[in-house]
Specification:
Elements: E1 9-17, E2 28-35, E3 38-46, H1 54-68, H2 71-74, E4 83-88, H3 91-98, H4 111-121, E5 125-129, H5 146-156
Parallel strand pairs: 1-4, 4-5
Antiparallel strand pairs: 1-2, 2-3
Helix pairs in contact: 1-3
C-alpha cells in the first residue's frame, strides 16, 4: 500500500461496488483515511442513489470519502501545507475529478463533482489512480483472496 510522504498528508482510499445490492441495485461505497501511516477512519455502506455507470458510482464514493474528512471544516483549521491525497482505482473517475476540461465530455455533471474539480484546481487536494492490489478500501467490504487480504491487513498495522 502507498504510504504518506510526511506528517502533513491525509491519504484517502475510496472504492465502490457498482450496483452491488441485489434488491435495490444501489452501489456500495467504502473509504479509509490515513494520517501519516496511521489508519484513522474507515467506512462502508450503500450509496443513497442508483448509479448508471461504474464511473458514476466511483465518483460518488470519492465524494463520500472526501466528505468524511469534513474537507471544508477540518482542513481550514489545520496547517496550510496539509493536502488531501485521494486514491481511487477507476481511471475514468480520477480523470473526471482531476480535470476541469472533462466537463465538456460529460453531459450530466452534478454540483458535487464540480466541487471536487474546484478543490483540485485550488490545489487543496490531488486525485491519484491506485491499482487494485494497493486499494486499501477493499479490505473493509470485499471478499479478497487470502494473500491480498493479508498484505492489506499488514499495511493497516
Amino acid at each position: 500500500m502507498l504510504k504518506a510522504a510526511g506528517n502533513s498528508e491525509l491519504l484517502t482510499f475510496t472504492d465502490s461496488g457498482f450496483a452491488s445490492c441485489e434488491e435495490t441495485r444501489k452501489s456500495r461505497s467504502r473509504a479509509c483515511i490515513f494520517f501519516s501511516d496511521s489508519l484513522i477512519y474507515w467506512k462502508s455502506g450503500k450509496q443513497n442513489h442508483i448509479s448508471r455507470s461504474t464511473t458514476k458510482a466511483e465518483l460518488y464514493a470519492l465524494l463520500e470519502g472526501i466528505t468524511e474528512v469534513e474537507f471544508p471544516h477540518c482542513l481550514q483549521s489545520s496547517p496550510k501545507n496539509l493536502q488531501l491525497q485521494e486514491y481511487c482505482d477507476n481511471s475514468s473517475a480520477g480523470k473526471i475529478a482531476s480535470s476541469i476540461e472533462s466537463i465538456a465530455r460529460t453531459k450530466h455533471n452534478e454540483v458535487a463533482h464540480l466541487w471536487i474539480q474546484q478543490e483540485v484546481a485550488k490545489e487543496r487536494m490531488k486525485v491519484h489512480y491506485v491499482n487494485t492490489e494497493n486499494q486499501a478500501a477493499d479490505i473493509f467490504a470485499k471478499s479478497l483472496a487470502r494473500p491480498l487480504f493479508e498484505i492489506l491487513r499488514k499495511d493497516l498495522d
